[in-house]
Amino acid sequence: MLDRLSTDTALLTTTQMAQVDRLTIVSGISGAVLMESAGRSVAQTILQRWRPRPVLVLCGPGNNGGDGFVVARRLAEAGWPVRVALLVPRDHLCGDAARHAALWQSPVEELAPEALDGAELVVDAIFGAGLSRALDVAITQTLATAAELGLTIVAIDVPSGLMGDTGANVGAVQASLTVTFFRKKPGHLLQPGRALCGEVVVADIGTPMSVFDTLVPDAFENNPSLWLDALPMLQPDGHKYTRGHALICGGYPSTGAARLSARAAARVGAGLVTIAVEPHALPVYAAALTSVMVTPIADLADVDSLLADARYSGLLIGPGAGLNDATRERVLAMLNTGRPTVLDADALSVFKNDPDELMRSITGPCVLTPHEGEFKRLFDDTGDKLSRARNAAKRSGAILVLKGSDTVIAAPDGRAIINTNAPPTLATAGSGDVLAGLVLGLMTQGMEPFLAAAAAVWLHGAAATEFGIGLVAEDLSEVLPIVLQRLHARLVL
User: Rg (Cα) of the chain, in Å, rounded?
Assistant: First the structure.
């Protein structure tokens, strides 16, 4: 359902951005004008953030370097002391880059660490996102020296040495600010690129929105605009059963994980939540839960009996389930119902010796929520994170939520959403169990799995940010209503 996803948050690959530039030029905006607009935007962004100081602009041989010459000229016109260091001889430049280099009337130095002497701010205009090889020694030494000196670095498009499609680092150093154009690229969001870019500003350089008539993006930055219209809303004539009944298979002795999931599912709107546990564990769960119901399951027959009740509209297994045959059998029984199912933690790892058995069994709506370790037990771990998540989703037929500070939500058809709002405080025990419960709660209410997973990941991060320092997993569900109230207010407006 690509039509539901806003182009405002679209992420474009380097190939797609090249197509955007071609379509823009066809529309009547020349490459030289685009370059002028790009450089002017970078200069304006610098002028808005810093007072005048000595600047060194590092220019490469291509269009990124051409942007750099525009930045140098614009800053100099604003009265800043500016020098330019170029990677290649000036007469080696061609096209639009050569045109703008010709407008720079001052001398040009050789790009080398020595050129940094006296500079306080460095503009990195060496290479953009399309770089596909490691940086030359002169570049890496110059950038490394700038970083060691603690100079402020402003990158154009991406820090040189950062792969725009993957976020991989082949020589980039930390930038304070990155100014890119029209739309972000996956490398701005995927680690380590996300950390290396610093603040990312997306500048409007006049690219017409009509490019999306030809270009169909399939990757997006997670934002409520993607899924807010699909978020379950309370209905005046609704009751607990219209809001869905979530069923969770709990474990023992690790009882806390399933309870965290249950609380989250209820907080995000599931009308009823039941945890099914073995009889000897029932008193532990019952003593710790109030609005969440607990029911005993002694064997697989009891599980099948529960699943025969069609009122259970969403299923979850994994948190605290245990790595045993009982967990594997319960996973298969849940998947056999064809109802929306979330598999997390032990429900994934229990198939490490036979991942294909799990893949064959996924025939209905399903969301897998592995962290990197669990992912490696089931899927090919080579390649960049976005590609790995997409390949795993295609192979499994499920929505794949590959967790981390740059969580990727991928669908079997190739659509992907990269999340950016997760604070470091989420690195705490039990936070993943809460996330699984949020996905469950939204799917239980009928939300489409891909959008439910994206919404859950964003809500998870927003709740953590709302709470702040000192977060433990239990706090996430407690502050979730504040986040939900703000979202619902936007729906009502």
Answer: 26
Residue 342 dihedral angles phi and psi, to the nearest 5°: -115, 130
Closest C-alpha among 444, 477, 468, 455 to residue 259: 477
What is the C-alpha separation between 90 and 80, in angstroms, rounded? 23
Q: Are the CB atoms for 392 and 379 separated by under 8 Å?
A: yes
Measured in residues, the chain has a length of 493
* Kind plus residue range of the DSSP H or E element containing 3: none
Instruction: Find, among 192, 162, 134, the residue nearest to 14 by Cα.
Output: 162
Pick from 212, 196, 210, 116: which is nearest to 158 by CA? Answer: 196
pTM above 0.85, yes or no: yes
Q: Which of 220, 251, 284 is the last residue of a domain?
A: 220
In a shared domain, residues 138 and 35: yes
CATH number at residue 447: 3.40.1190.20
Q: For 486, which DSSP code?
A: H
Strand pairing class (416-418; 408-410): antiparallel
373 Cβ neighbours under 8 A, 6+ residues apart? none
Same domain, 206 and 237: no
For 262, half-sphere exposure in the C-beta direction (CA atoms, 13 angstrom radius) is 26
The residues, ordered by sequence, that sit 6+ positions from 347 with a Cβ below 8 Å of its Cβ are 317, 318, 321, 327, 331
Which tokens is 168 given?
A: 């991989």
Q: Per residue in 300-333, pLDDT tens?
A: 999 999 999 999 999 999 999 999 999 999 999 9
Whether residue 274 is found in the same domain as residue 234: yes
Question: Does 1 reside within a domain?
Answer: no
CA dihedral 6, 7, 8, 12 (to 10 degrees): 130
Mean pLDDT of the residues in the chain: 95
Show which of 189, 220, 251 is a domain's final residue: 220
Claim to verify: residue 197 and residue 240 sit in the same structural domain: no
> Does 2 fall in a domain?
no
Alpha helices in 7-130 (DSSP H): 14-26, 31-49, 63-77, 95-102
Could you read off the pLDDT of 237-272 as tens digits, one per residue?
888 878 999 999 999 999 999 999 999 999 999 999
- 93 with 173, same domain: the answer is yes
pLDDT tens string 92-138: 999 999 999 999 999 999 999 999 999 999 999 999 998 888 899 99
